[in-house]
Design a protein that fits this description.
The chain is α/β, with parallel strands linked by helices. The protein has 11 helices and 9 strands. It has a 7-stranded mixed β-sheet with strand order 4-3-2-5-6-9-7. β5, α4 and β6 form a beta-alpha-beta unit. The longest helix has 13 residues. The N and C termini lie far apart (about 55 Å). Bound molecules: S-adenosylmethionine (SAM). The site of S-adenosylmethionine has 23 residues, from β1 and β3.
Length: about 270
C-alpha cells in the first residue's frame, strides 16, 4: 500500500525485521492470550502477532490505514479492528471472557504521555504492556531517584507499574526516520500498590506541584501545605530537592498531607 506518512498521527513505520522479531520475542506469546495493539499502522507488528495464535484487537485512528488493515486481515477470525482514538477509547471493549489484556504498540510519540496515563486507568484489566517510545521517555519511565530523568512521569508510572527498559532502536529502522532514538519498554501493572499514598488525588497533586518547581527545596515548594518540622518528622530533609526523593518518601509526604486539613483543602 502506498501511504504518505502523517506527521499529526506520529507515523514512523517500523520496517526493520530484526527489531520486529525482537519485539515479538520479548512478548513470549502463549496461544489464546488476548492482545491489544495500539496504532497498527501498516501492520508491521500486526501480521507477526497474528501468526502467534493469539486474539488481537487493534486500535487505529487513521481511516486510510484502517481501511487497508481491514482489507488485509478481514479473513482472520482472531482479529478485530477498532477505528478510534486511543485517548478516547474504552479498553473494556477489548475484554472477552475475563481474559487479561496484553498491550503492545509502536506508539505515536506526540501523544505518548497522555496515552500512558489513559491506558493506566484500565490497569486492573492489563497484564502487561510493551511499547516503543522515544528513548528519553523510556529513560524517564525507568529512572531512579537522583538523576535528571527522574520526575513526575517516573513516580506516577512506578507507583502503578514495574518498568523495564528492554532495548534501543535506531532511527533508520523506521520510515520516515524519526529525529530521535527509540526504546522498547515493558510495563507490568502492580497487583497491589507498592506504597500507601493515603489518597491518590493528593499524591498526584503533590507530585505535580513539586516537579513544577523542581529546582526549589521541598520546604519552599510545600510551604503552603506542610511546614519544615512536619517534613523532618517524616525523616525527610526539608532542604532536599524533589528529584532525590524515593517513591516511599513521596508516599509518606502524601499520607501526611492527606491527613492534614490543609492538604485536604489546599
Ligand atoms: N505499528 C506501526 C508500525 O510499527 O509501523 C505504526 C506505528 S506509528 C509510530 C503510530 C501509529 O499510531 C500510526 O498508525 C498512527 O496512525 C496511529 N495513531 C496515532 N494517533 C493515534 C490515536 N490517537 N489513536 C489510535 N491510533 C493512533
Amino acid at each position: 500500500m502506498s501511504h504518505k506518512p502523517r506527521k499529526r498521527f506520529g507515523q514512523n513505520f517500523l520496517h526493520d525485521t530484526t527489531i520486529i522479531d525482537a519485539i515479538i520475542a520479548a512478548l513470549h506469546c502463549q496461544a489464546g492470550e488476548h492482545f491489544v495493539e495500539i496504532g497498527p499502522g501498516l501492520g508491521a507488528l500486526t501480521a507477526p502477532l497474528l501468526q502467534q495464535s493469539i486474539r488481537l484487537h487493534a486500535i487505529e485512528i487513521d481511516r486510510d490505514l484502517a481501511d487497508a488493515l481491514q482489507r488485509r486481515f478481514h479473513d482472520q477470525p482472531r482479529f478485530t479492528l477498532h477505528r478510534a482514538d486511543i485517548l478516547r477509547f474504552d479498553l473494556r471493549e477489548c475484554v472477552e471472557g475475563g481474559m487479561p489484556l496484553r498491550l503492545v504498540g509502536n506508539l505515536p510519540y506526540n501523544i505518548s504521555t497522555p496515552l500512558l496515563f489513559h491506558v493506566l486507568e484500565y490497569a486492573p484489566l492489563i497484564r502487561d504492556m510493551h511499547f516503543m517510545l522515544q528513548k528519553e521517555v523510556v529513560a524517564r519511565l525507568c529512572a531512579a531517584p537522583g538523576g535528571h530523568d527522574y520526575g513526575r512521569l517516573s513516580i506516577m508510572m512506578q507507583y502503578r507499574c514495574t518498568t523495564a527498559h528492554l532495548f534501543d532502536v535506531p532511527p533508520h529502522c523506521f520510515h520516515p526516520a524519526p529525529q530521535v532514538t527509540s526504546s522498547v519498554v515493558r510495563l507490568v501493572p502492580h497487583l497491589a500498590p507498592p506504597v500507601d499514598v493515603g489518597d491518590t488525588q493528593t499524591f498526584a497533586r503533590l507530585v505535580s506541584q513539586v516537579f513544577a518547581q523542581r529546582r526549589k527545596t521541598l520546604r519552599n515548594t510545600l510551604k503552603n501545605w506542610l511546614d519544615a518540622a512536619h517534613i523532618e518528622e517524616l525523616g525527610i530533609d526539608p532542604q532536599s530537592r524533589p528529584e532525590t526523593l524515593s517513591l516511599a518518601q513521596f508516599a509518606a509526604l502524601s499520607r501526611s498531607l492527606a491527613a492534614s486539613s490543609r492538604g485536604a483543602t489546599g
